[in-house]
Each structure stands twice: as C-alpha cells, then as structure tokens.
Amino acid sequence: MNLALHGAIEQGLLFAIMALGVYLTFRILNFPDLTVDGSFALGGALAARLIIEGTNPFLATLMAFVAGGVAGIFTGVLHTKGKINGLLAGILTMIALYSINLRIMGKANLPLLREDTLYTFVKDLGVPNLAVGGVVFFTGVALVFLIGILLLKAIIDWFLQTDLGLDIRATGDNSKMIRSFGANTDTTTIIGLGLSNALVAVSGAWVAQYQGFADVGMGIGMIVIGLASVIVGEVLFGSSSIFRATLAVILGSVVYRLVIALALDAGLNPSDMKLITALIVIIALTVPAVAKSVWKRQPFRATKGGRGDA
Amino acid sequence: MLKISRVRKVFNEGTVNEKIALREINLNVTPGEFITVIGSNGAGKSTLMNIISGGLIPDTGSVIIDGKNVTKLGEHKRASFVGRVFQDPMAGTAPNMTIEENLAIAYARGKRRTLSFGVNNRKRELFREQLRQLDQGLENRLKTKVGFLSGGQRQALSLLMATFTEPKILLLDEHTAALDPKRAQLIVDLTQKVVEQYKLTTIMVTHNMEQALNMGNRLLMLHDGGIILDIPQEKKQTMKPQDLLRAFEQARGGESFSEDRYLLS
Ligand SMILES: Nc1ncnc2c1ncn2[C@@H]1O[C@H](COP(=O)(O)OP(=O)(O)OP(=O)(O)O)[C@@H](O)[C@H]1O
Ligand SMILES: [Mg+2]
Question: Per the database record, which ranges form the ABC transporter domain (chain B) (predicted)?
Fold first, then answer.
C-alpha cells in the first residue's frame, strides 16, 4: 500500500464523522439538509481561529460541535417554525454561513502551521503502524481515528435506540404516526438537524487540523461527498439495522476516499474530483437501483401482495 | 368523558372552495360508551375525528376530554388522552422500525421522552405478552421491521399500539376498510376484545351498516356536517340496515340514501 492510500484511509475516517451527520438527516430524518457545506466550513473556520488564538484544540473542536449544532438548529427552526421548504432552509443557512465563516477567519485561508492541533496530538501518541511482513496496512494515526470513529458510532447507535432516538427515527419514517403518540415533530426535526450539523462541524474542525489549514471553500460539495459515502456504504455493506447502517456509512466514506486516491493515482487532476464524486453518486444511485428498490420497497410489496399470514 | 360543544369547522372559508365540514356539532360521550358513526362521503366523519384528536382545531366551539378543555391543544399534546387507528394500514406504524420499536413508541405515549433505552427486557416481556393476544405469531418477531407485515397484521399492531396504554378515548376511522373481508373480520373481533378488556370509550367510523349496528352501544349518523341521527343502544339492537335507511330518509325529509359504499348485506 502506498502513501496515498494510507492518507485516503485517514481522511476517510475523518470525513466519516460528516457522513454520519448526513446519514442522520438524509436517512434517519428523511430531510435533504444542505446546511452541510456551510457547517463543515464553519467547524474548520472556528477551530482554526480558536487554535491560532491559543485555545486548546480539544476545546476548539468542542466549540465547533456547538456552533455546528446551532447552525443545524437554525435550519430546523426556519423549516418547522418558519414553514420554509426544507431544501431552501438549508441553502439559506449555508449561504449565510459563508459570510459568517469569512468573518470568523478574517481571510479566506487560515494556516495552522506549527500549532498544536488534534492531529499533532494523535501523531505524538506514537501509536505504531499496523504492518504485516513489512507492508503497512494501517498507520498508527488511522488506528487512533478508527477507534475514535467506532466510539462515535457506538454513541450514535445507542442514541438512536433511546426513547428520544426512536421518536427522531419515527419522525423520518412516519411523522403522522409519531405525532399521534405525543411527539412534537418540530422538536425532533430540530434536534436531528442540530445533532447532524454538530457532527459535520466536528468533521470540518478535524479536517482543518489534519490538513493544516482552514479554507472558506473547504465545505463546497461536502453534501455530495457525504451522500456518496452514505449511498456507497449502503450499496456495498447494507443497511438492514442501525448498527449495520452506521458501519456502512463509515466504510462508505473510506471507500470513497480510496476511489478518489486511485483516480488521482491513475493520473486524473485534483480538479477532476468533483466530477468523479458526482459520477460515483450517480453510479451508486442508478446501477444498483434494482437492488435498492427491492430493499426499499419490499416492506410495501409484502403488504400489498398480501402474502402475510393474517 | 368527551364533550363537544357547538363545534364548527369550515375549510377554505371565504373562497369559492368554501366547504362547511362541521356545523354546530354537539356531542356528549359518557365513559365506556362505544359509539359507531356512519354517514355518506364528505359527511364530516373524519373531520370530527380530527377535531377530537387535535389534528384539526375547530373554528368555534369547544372540546373537553375528561374535564380538561383541549380545544386549542395540538395533536401531540393530546396524545396522552387519545388513541387512534387510521384507515390506511400504513399510517399507524413506522415501516422501517421493528415491531418492538414501534411498541416502545406507543408505550411512551404522552410521556416525556428521555435518553433511556426505548426497548429493554422488561418492556420486551410486556410487548410479547400483548402481541400474543393478537394471535398473529408476532410475539416471536419482535425484531422484524413492521414494513414486512401484511396489512392485516399492521392494522392489528396499530390497534394494539393505540389501546394498550389505555387512552381516555379511542378513535377508529374506518380502520377495517382497506382490508379484505377475512382480515377485516379479524380486526373487528380484536376491536371488540380490546375495547371490552380496557373498557375504552370508543368512537368508530365505519361504512358497514351491519357493523355499525352490531358493534358498540350507540350509533350516530352524520350528514352534511351535522349529526342527523343519534340512536341509543335499546333502539339500535332492534334495528336492521333497512330500518337505518328508513330512519335516514325520515330525518332528511324524503331524500334517499344513495351510497354505493354501504354494505347492506
Ligand atoms: N383539509 C381539507 N381542506 C378542504 N376541504 C376538506 C379538507 N378536509 C376535508 N374537507 C372537506 O370537508 C368535508 C368533510 O370531509 P371528511 O373527510 O370529514 O368526510 P368523511 O365523512 O370522513 O368522508 P369519507 O366517508 O369519504 O371518509 C368534505 O367535503 C371534504 O372535501
Ligand atoms: Mg373519512
């Protein structure tokens, strides 16, 4: 395995935090949230600014979590209380965040050279690479990331099994039903969006620290990358349960980065990557459409066909 | 238990599409009463159910449940009083969630949602016990997604979810209409059973006159936004569908009841 692939795995694990956020809105809430591009950059911008000003990188990343949450809540309030179409609500927050992110950074790009970051912290842990017969499969850094993301996955899995989590899932699955059982779907939608964008912002904060700079454009196209990870993950690894689905999202994110790395390796330009991303999503959505429609529609078919034993 | 006073509901008021769905409805339901409701299409039956559940807020008048004025309370705030089964078997359950998760949601009806596990072993045992009563073998399929169940099974589950927390009022809006006769009968039987078991105050809309006469202990007929017949049990149990039609014609001053959907058999 070459260096590029090691980097791809590390990146895939960091971007997986964002993909999990996208999974929460697109899949769990069934809400096409476009806030993501803005909240990702928000996380990066805020963390970078705070770190440069001497804030502890852990605290800075936590602040990114909070700020992302506020952005998501804002979109949620626009949609539920302001009755603005969901897509538009997300776009409005995203656009507003672009200006806000510039304000936070003061300029379009903030380098984090020689700062203490979460990345330098992880590197300084000195976890050895996982090598078999001299071939490195997992860098030490990737191992730490992997443990971190699996911990996060466990927390999300747990949350989605709590009473509140069940309400949020039912909001995306059958909002009429969950209202008749006493849940306020405005509230569950807002909580879901807040949580999702909090994760996305944390991902942005991590990525900024990993790549050593925050850029006001670092969130552009992030929603599509998130979707690519979710969809590729579902297609390749299944989504029959929450446990499986969140795992698939993480693996999907890594696979996506590996594909990108291989494409670059094959001689494509970095500027081609947005095209590649769009193609990956298109392929993942259309080619297994048959398989996917079986997976998605089966419940209804089983009912309509009346093959049950009632 | 339920007191509806002078409730009026108009859709699209002041436009060409204005539609008076309910005009000055008064209804007093005593605890344990099981009311069946019939009426032609567009009579306002579903609107009445929605007014009670909080899905719709009346333009004027008041709704009082168990002594509490809930007229302006939204649906989710009334959920602790009102259990509901919809006509569409898809409507009452979350298809991508498992049977036990759906039941956990129903179990939490009207309670504050916390971060404790929605399903635990104690609840699972309770759910299993409840499901056993449905006689559908669902007690062994707690982890099956509800979307994989047949329409009848889903409706049975919806009924269970609507009732096992013993709401003050149970609303059934043509909850057997989308099922084939065999499954419909099964749900009818189950309905009788749970209503009796929990002594639930129930309002059931049906398009089946036979059903309306055989079930419950009071019958209402709605027409054009008003209650035109209110038949008590003593009278109801002696009536046949033909008598019901005659009563309708009398109440309407000769207008005949033409409604293909009604089963007169
Ligand atoms: N949201 C709405 N907007 C406008 N008109 C409505 C709305 N809901 C119901 N109506 C109208 O109000 C009237 C009563 O409707 P409702 O659904 O209560 O009838 P129903 O008795 O349940 O009929 P059905 O037997 O067909 O279910 C109908 O004329 C209907 O078209
Ligand atoms: Mg109706």
Answer: 2-249
Whole-Å CA distances, B143 to A155, A247, B3: 21, 19, 40
Rounded to two decimals, the ipTM of the complex is: 0.87
Which residues in chain B are closer than 8 Å to A185, comparing Cβ atoms? 76
For chain A, the domains span 3-220
Residues in chain A, overall count: 310
pLDDT per residue over B78-98, tens digit each?
A: 998 999 999 999 999 999 999
Instruction: List the CATH code of the domain at B2-81+167-264.
Output: 3.40.50.300
Whole-angstrom Cα Rg for chain B: 19
A310 to B104: CB separation less than 8 angstroms, yes or no: no
- Distance CA(A142)–CA(A197), nearest Å, equals 24
Quote the mean pLDDT of chain B.
91
Residues of B in contact with A167 (CB under 8 A): 105, 108, 113
Cβ under 8 Å to B: A residues 79-108: none
Report yes or no: A27 at the B interface, CB cutoff 8 Å. no
**Nearest CA owner, ligand 1 atom 11:** B21
**Count of residues for chain B?**
265
Chain A CB contacts of B180 under 8 Å are 306
User: Are the CB atoms for A68 and A36 separated by under 8 Å?
Assistant: no
For the segment A88-116, the average pLDDT, to the nearest whole number, is: 96
Q: Is the CB of B15 under 6 A from ligand 1?
A: no
Handedness of CA B222, B226, B228, B230 (dihedral sign): positive
> How is the beta sheet containing B226-232 ordered, strand by strand?
B82-85, B169-173, B201-205, B34-39, B218-223, B226-232
Which atom of ligand 1 lies nearest, measured to the CA of B43? 21
Cα of B9 vs centre of ligand 1, distance in Å, is 11
Domain ranges of chain B: 2-81+167-264
Q: Which of A181, A234, A298 to mutate to test the interface with B (most CBs of B within 10 A)?
A: A181
Question: pTM for the complete prediction?
Answer: 0.88
Give strand ranges (E) for chain B. Answer: 2-11, 19-29, 34-39, 60-65, 68-69, 82-85, 169-173, 201-205, 218-223, 226-232
CA distance B13 to chain A (A): 21
Q: What is the rounded distance in angstroms from the CA atom of residue B48 to the CA atom of residue B55?
A: 10
Asked if A1 contacts A136 with a C-beta cutoff of 8 angstroms, the reply is yes
The whole-number pLDDT of residue B85 equals: 94
Tell me: the pLDDT tens digits for A42-57?
Answer: 999 999 999 999 999 9
Asked if A300 has any chain B CB less than 8 Å from its own CB, the reply is yes
State phi, psi for B256 to the nearest 5 degrees.
-90, 155
How far apart CA B180 and CA B123 sit, in angstroms, is 32
pLDDT tens track for B5-44: 999 999 998 899 999 999 999 999 999 999 999 998 899 9
> Which one of A27, A177, A186, A187 would you mutate to disrupt binding with B, by most B Cβ within 10 Å of its Cβ?
A177
CA A35 – CA A96 distance, rounded (Å): 10
Tell whether ligand 1 has an atom less than 6 A from the beta carbon of residue B41.
Answer: yes
Distance to chain A for B57, nearest Cα, Å: 15
Q: How far is CA A17 from CA A12, A73, A232, A250, B175, in A?
A: 9, 18, 15, 8, 43
